[in-house]
Amino acid sequence: MSETTTKKTGRLIIVSNRLPMTVNMEEGKMTLGPSAGGLVSALGAYLERRQQDDTELAEYLWVGWPGNDIAEADQPLVRQHLRDEPGCDPVFLTAEVMDKFYLGFCNKTVWPLFHYFPTLTVYEEEMWKVYEAVNRQFCRVVAELVQPGDVIWIHDYHFMLLPAMLRECCPDNSIGFFLHIPFPAYEIFRLLPRKWAASLVEGLLGSDVVGFHTVDYVRHFLTAVLRLTGHQHQIGRVMFQGREIRVDAFPIGIDFEKYHETACLPKIRREADLIRRKLVQQKAILSVDRLDYTKGIAKRLRAYELFLERHPEWHQEVIMLLLVVPSRIGVDRYQDMRREIDELVGRINGRFGDIGWAPIAYLYKNLGLQALSSLYSAADVALVTPLRDGMNLVAKEFVASRTQDDGVLILSEMAGAARELPEALIINPNSREEMAEAIHQALVMPPGEQAERIRAMRDNVQRYDVHRWGWLFLHALQNLSAANQLTADKMLNEEKMANLVRQFALTNRRALIFDYDGTLVPLARTPEQAIPGEYLLRLLRALTAEQRNDVTIVSGRPREFLQQHFGDLRLTLVAEHGAWMKRRGGIWRKRVFPDNAWKPRILPLLEYYVERLPASFLEEKECSIAWHYRLSDAESAEFMAQELKFELTNLLLQTNMEVLEGNKVLEVRAKAANKGAAVLATLDDGNYGMILAAGDDWTDEDMFQVLPATAMTIRVGVRPTAANYLLADQQDLIALLEKLMMADLG
Ligand code: GDG
């Protein structure tokens, strides 16, 4: 899809905890200041440029908290002001709510846990309830604003329940979610009470696209989906509640041009020179972070201390410019950390410094972009060593600001950015030794090597900038919404069903073809448990009693099973995916004659997997063997199924057998045993005015594909399919059969 040819169809509604500006009210006077942090700086940059673009979403609206507890009396004024100019819609939250929501569940539960600090994680039901309530409040605000065609893009860990809530209120709008922090490995995520963990995962699955910074986070999330909902994914696509959801990595970038161009400004060059001159002959190591324990500031300082201890030759010749930006004031942990940093700086300066030289210059404040840019330009080395970081934009900003092809980046392997910047000196932030050594290596790195590394990194940061990130995410969202729309169009809704029934009533000869498991009966834990109930048998009897109907059951089940349950009905039966067939009133005939020499070769391998995977079992049929793993631990089963499939595929090369993957089952069967061919065989003696075929599984796709285009093919369970209609679940098919029966009864 090209950006310039698409029509403007709706608005982009951004939802994040903070609005890009913070509102202050003092004595009835309102002032606006910028909000700090990675999310706001990245998104703000993206939106700034987007406004000038001719993209398909005409305008944007930003919904979020205005940064302070605004008195009720002032709220109308603030709302009006923010709506008019910057296109923002404030959600007012009291200090008390923010305490439990933002400072509480967000920053005492999710933030520490997702950054692998389980010992700092607080689990409090009250905070969870407020988290739910605030998500609900945002849902109400967005639902009131949203119009058809609007695209909703939700940001970050504050709103993981919101996508599912919004899906209910505005099912037809595209909803995207992007997580700016890591999604942890399941062993960490499962520390959350199961109810919370499942709600968060299901909340996120309300989106059309769920985006993360790296493929590791994607993998972790997909594991959580599997473990908590039982849903597998197909190359990052999850089918959930009748919708396809794309889960993918969209590494966030920076506004490269802004940082690069700012660094090129004569004013910034002069300022950078001034800083360098002040540092007389000293090399500068830059450290910039929000005050946060995830950023590893204290460990970084200790590593610097070790470096000074081990390399006295650098005394007087190196300085660390330590910029710490105030953040989350009000959370105790952050105050403690500030104290710890103050003490460490004091200790290191006291231990190594003298009258003319302090090894650390420490600033605890927020700087403007230009001042920050001068620091990026003036520094020789950037020391970015978070203990865990979703991405880390500071690393990318430093790279973009290096206009002279020099400078060295030391980067923690725990930052998402490390995946994209392998030319940095990559360190483990838990190792003082590695960090101290890297500092030395950076300070002595020859200019040629510096240039080579920085150029490679800069190319990357330039190419995958924040605009590309936003564009890729929104295009993924729009493409997926289009795919989900196609699926929605196939749903056999009441109107379409009424048409179908009307047409059925008017038709003289009808072929009705049904798969068995998952179609006529619900899927059960074991095949033995899925037997037809009295009601289904009555329905089938009624349908078969009507002379105009030829009813066929096409199943993967062995013929003995079908014979036992349906042998006395006026039905055509197809067993083992077409290996056997019994025409109405006829006898069982074999259609496929597989070479059963394969069985002894395959059986030991399958039995070995039964041994390895608890609760898995074999179902042996005449022309096939199925390995079922529905009852087993989902994740181990998934892994072993792939392994077994690989082994079987190799073993069966150049035989007339094949291995097929079904719903929690792998089946080895004769290639010729195919429901498509069998179904055509059942039709060959009839001239039908209507063919209706329903199935729920991939094996049924074979019949959907071979039936004439005029056939009413129905897939039970919403999936991408060759069928022309979809039904949400098996009960809906029974309802359809009832309607067909009633149509004949008049
Ligand atoms: C979260 C994730 C992810 C810092 N000091 C000043 C200042 N900053 C700006 C930097 C940078 C941003 O703040 C910090 O971004 P980070 O990415 O480093 O970290 P978080 O705030 O924790 O961001 C993070 C990010 O979201 C985006 O998805 O990368 O992993 O934790 O842009 O420049 N800006 C100004 N003055 C300062 O003093 N103007």
Overall description:
The protein is an alpha/beta fold and about 750 residues long. Helices cover about 45% and strands about 20% of the residues. The protein is elongated, with a radius of gyration of 32 Å. It is built from 25 helices and 29 strands. The protein has four domains: about 35-60 and about 95-250, Rossmann fold, CATH 3.40.50; about 255-465, Rossmann fold; about 490-590 and about 675-745, HAD superfamily/HAD-like (Rossmann fold); about 600-670, Alpha-Beta Plaits. The strands form five sheets. Strands 5-4-1-6-7-8-11-10-9 form a nine-stranded mixed sheet, sandwiched between helices. Strands 22-21-20-19-18-27-28-29 form an eight-stranded mixed sheet, with helices on both faces. Mean pLDDT is about 90; it is low at about 1-5. GDP-alpha-D-glucose (GDG) binds near residues 38, 42, 252, 393 and 394.
Strand order of the largest sheet: 5-4-1-6-7-8-11-10-9
The average pLDDT value, as a whole number, equals: 91
Q: Give the C-level CATH assignment of the largest domain.
A: Alpha Beta
What is the makeup of the main sheet?
9 strands, mixed
Terminal Cα span: 51 Å
- Please, how many domains? 4
Q: What Rg is obtained from the alpha carbons, in whole angstroms?
A: 32 Å
**Based on CA inertia axes, which overall geometry fits?**
elongated
